Amino acid sequence: MRAIAVAAFGFAIFASTACQSETAPWRAFSAKNKVMRWVGRESLVANPYKYKGNVIAFQAWFVGSVSDTAIFSDRFGALDQALSVQTMSGRSFRKGEPVVVAVQVLGPDSGQEFENLSLVEVYRCKTAACSEFAKFNSSGELMIVDAPARQMVQQASEQAPGAAGSQDDKH
After folding, report:
1. How many CB atoms lie under 10 A from the CB of residue 44?
2. Sign (positive/negative) of CA torsion 27, 32, 34, 38?
3. CATH of domain 22-162
4. Per-residue DSSP letter, 40
5. I need a surface site. Which of 13, 81, 110, 161 has the fewest CB within 10 A?
6. In angstroms, rounded to a whole number, what is the distance separating the alpha carbons of residues 140 and 111?
7. 102-154 pLDDT, tens per residue?
């Protein structure tokens, strides 16, 4: 009986460690870039300004670029999910390359008709669906399976945008 309990406990630690290692890349990416929300492309296209002032992240595929603006969408390049990210050259990307993108939502500028997303960081995925980084739904939104991870994202999204920036001012 004792051997069964020890084996079960050992398996639980192994399983817990395996789950942690699967989520480590997105956690590190979130912390490093002060990601406040992981959003789906459809939600971001529908109303990018509800995230104004925040760093948000999503999974997408590179479609192409125009000047210093890169365009991302779903795996098939659907225009209804196309997002333009400023201050980002697309020259080093291949068409259809999967990525995870963190952007700062700047808000609308007078006379501009695009999302006004400015690049914070991009992660180049090793697999077609970025499965080595995290699990995403079909819209590129992070799928959080474990409760501690969900709480981490929720706590980050509840912080005021100015609070995250004030820590940088100290360094």
Report:
1. 24
2. negative
3. 2.40.50.140
4. -
5. 110
6. 29
7. 999 987 665 555 558 999 999 999 998 899 999 999 999 999 865 444 555 55
